[in-house]
Design a protein that fits this description.
- It is a single chain.
- With 406 residues, this protein is an alpha/beta fold.
- The chain has helices at residues 47-50, 92-95, 128-133, 159-166, 181-186, 209-217, 256-267, 279-298, 318-332, 367-375, 380-389, and strands at residues 30-35, 38-43, 56-60, 62-64, 68-72, 78-88, 101-108, 119-121, 136-143, 146-152, 194-197, 221-227, 250-255, 274-277, 336-341, 356-360, 400-404.
- It has 2 domains: 6-64 and 188-404, 3-Layer(aba) Sandwich (QueA-like), CATH 3.40.1780.10; 68-167, Thrombin, subunit H (Beta Barrel).
- It is 25% helix and 24% strand.
- The strands form 3 sheets. A 9-stranded mixed beta sheet has the order 2-1-17-16-14-3-12-13-15. The protein has a 6-stranded antiparallel β-barrel with strand order 5-6-7-10-9-8.
- Strand 5 and strand 6 form a beta hairpin.
- The longest helix is centred in the C-terminal third of the chain and has 20 residues, at 279-298.
- The two termini are 23 Å apart.
Length: 406
């Protein structure tokens, strides 16, 4: 059993250190480099000079959806509904293509005031096209602050278009402000592609087309995975012991061609490192090993459980696990692996794929800070003390870091 006290991963984060807005230029943020216990300071646009030639960088190309919707009861009460994950249809690609109705698992704000009556979208009558959709919400079931909600609308529009017209981008609550026009562009990576996240993979917010072009010109391979970021990822750990904190499932997709590229690099003995852009990419990549073990032992990949990496000693090599995944996809005639993960990465975790990490600065007492500590061998305070003492900006719109694994 993991015995980690979350209070050991606390630090004082004054509100003025939290970046409430992005800088005018994506790549103008500070960049902290941590290597061999030493910290140096750079600018993010310097990143191509700091990444070894021949490295592989892996990006999460999920796209944030405008998942916050506001409805009114006939009494006038305003109810916020925050779409978390698809229920019917059960996959993101199919639910966004729905044309009349769909069901989502949602967080319901002001939930006690919703008595189960059908709600109408609070459009204010200002946009006739939105009014013509006649978007409604029906509470199918409720469990605390969450529930299953059925949405219905008219006009045959795709639900993705309904969200684009009616929804708001769900910026983090610690920004203490409403969504503004700047967030529509800047709370999204330049390479975002597949809709599904309710929070941005924020390490990628710093990348510009110029930085990406310079990385490729240097000979850095760039690959993508897709993990849809759920609302639970950034929640502080509320239990005293980390062992009592539940991780939410997040679906991810990895292409078979990417698995082959990973296998080719390892078999060729190429010493160049694998660089994960963001903690979501780390969690996806490290989950592959355990999905591969499931293929070896059970004949098919399964969702990766929260504590699976700590449950026993694993003797399979990384190559064996990756090959088992590819063989399974070959046998099934599939081009992609689609499963989910609840993996939690805490001190004591054995990293099997990721060598370097590009990431922002995270909240105190969060699972993301635990991941950072695991990655740098427990030396997270060296990094965070430096950042706090040298005017780094924190959290989603804040500055960046490049960390070498210890």
């Amino acid at each position: 059993m993991i015995d980690i006290r979350i209070q050991d991963y606390n630090y004082e984060l004054p509100d003025e250190w939290i970046a409430k807005y992005p800088l005018p230029q994506r790549d103008a943020s500070k960049l902290l480099l941590y290597r061999d216990g030493t910290v140096t300071e750079h600018v993010f646009r310097d990143l191509p000079e700091l990444i070894p030639a021949g490295a592989m960088m892996v990006f999460n190309d999920t796209k944030v959806v405008p998942a916050r919707l506001f409805f009114r009861r006939d009494t006038g009460a305003l109810i916020e509904i925050f779409c978390l994950e698809p229920i019917d249809p059960p996959e993101y690609n199919t639910i966004f293509a729905a044309r009349e109705r769909c069901r989502w698992k949602c967080v319901i704000g002001n939930a006690k005031r919703w008595k189960g009556d059908i709600l109408h979208f609070a459009h204010g009558g200002q946009d006739p096209e939105v009014a013509a959709l006649d978007l409604t919400a029906d509470l199918v079931s409720r469990e605390g602050q969450t529930g299953t909600v059925e949405f219905r609308w008219k006009g045959g529009e795709l639900f993705s278009n309904v969200l684009d017209r009616c929804g708001r981008v769900p910026i983090p609550p610690y920004l203490n402000r409403e969504t503004e026009a700047i967030d529509l562009e800047r709370y999204q990576t330049t390479y975002a592609h597949f809709r599904g996240s309710v929070a941005a993979p924020t390490a990628g917010l710093h990348f510009t087309e110029e930085v990406l072009a310079r990385l490729r010109a240097k000979g850095v391979d760039t690959e993508t995975v897709c993990l849809h970021v759920g609302a639970g990822t950034f929640l502080p750990v509320k239990s005293e012991n980390v062992a009592d904190h539940p991780m939410h499932r997040e679906p991810f997709t990895v292409r078979k061609s990417f698995l082959q590229a990973l296998l080719d690099r390892r078999r060729e003995g190429r010493p160049q490192p694998l660089v994960a852009v963001g903690t979501t990419s780390v969690r996806t990549l490290e989950s592959l090993y355990y999905a591969g073990v499931s293929c070896i032992e059970k004949g098919q990949p399964e969702d990766v459980g929260q504590w699976v990496p700590y449950s026993r000693d694993y003797t399979y090599s990384t190559e064996e696990a990756l090959q088992a995944l590819k063989d399974y996809l070959d046998a099934q005639g599939l081009d992609e692996l689609r499963i989910g993960t609840r993996i939690i990465i805490v001190p004591g975790f054995r990293f099997r794929l990721v060598d370097l990490l590009v990431t922002n600065f995270h909240q105190p007492e969060s699972t993301l800070l635990l991941l950072i500590s695991a990655f740098v061998g427990g030396d997270w305070r060296t990094i965070y003390d430096y950042a706090l003492q040298h005017d780094f900006r924190f959290l989603s719109y804040g500055d960046s870091s490049l960390l070498y694994r210890v």
